[in-house]
Amino acid sequence: MGDSFECRETWNPERIHALAIYCSDGRWGNAFDEFCHEVLSIPRYDRFAVPGGPVWLNMLRPGGLRRYDAARDHLDFLVRVHQVERAVLIGHYGCAFYSDMLGMTIEDAVLEQQADLRIAAGNLRGWFAGIQVEAYMALREEWRISFTPVPVGG
Q1: For residue 143, what are the CA distances in angstroms to 69, 78, 93, 131, 140?
Q2: 3-state secondary structure 42-68
Q3: What is the phi/psi pair of residue 141, to 5°?
């Protein structure tokens, strides 16, 4: 790489007290950021980005206990040290975790992802008293991406 790079973005020490949990698929990253920044008004937020995203908060999935325990440890740190008060859960259309790891069709996976968003929201509320949780599905139609709220109670 050689020469150093200086960002246009400057350091801002203010915490937003928000966390987004979503899939690590880089094809969706810019859309997730745009949605969080522009629609949800969270310009800087902590990220928990792992394959499948919120499914890590469901220990009933195959291999789920290891993911569940790891997620709980990491999220406990973020909520405690960064004083997170708001959690945004995002599932996305065509998630490879659901098709590859769980052998589901895209259509079946969307329904399962919505169920996992509800489970994840309930677990977060159980772990962290008073945390505000909301959930969304990122959907794709050809080249267009949209975000739809998923009711998660609370």
Answers
A1: 36, 34, 12, 34, 7
A2: CCCCEEEECCCHHHHHCCCCCCHHHHH
A3: -125, 110
Note whether 131 and 154 are within 8 A (CB). no
Residue from 77, 63, 75 nearest 124 by CA: 75
SS3 88: strand
**Domains of the chain listed by start with CATH number:** 18-143 (3.40.50)
Global pTM value: 0.93
Distance CA 14, CA 56 (A): 28
Between the two ends of the chain, the Cα-to-Cα distance in Å is 48
The tens digit of pLDDT for each residue in 34-91 reads 999 999 999 999 999 999 999 999 877 767 788 889 999 999 999 999 999 999 999 9
For 12, the token pair is 């801002």
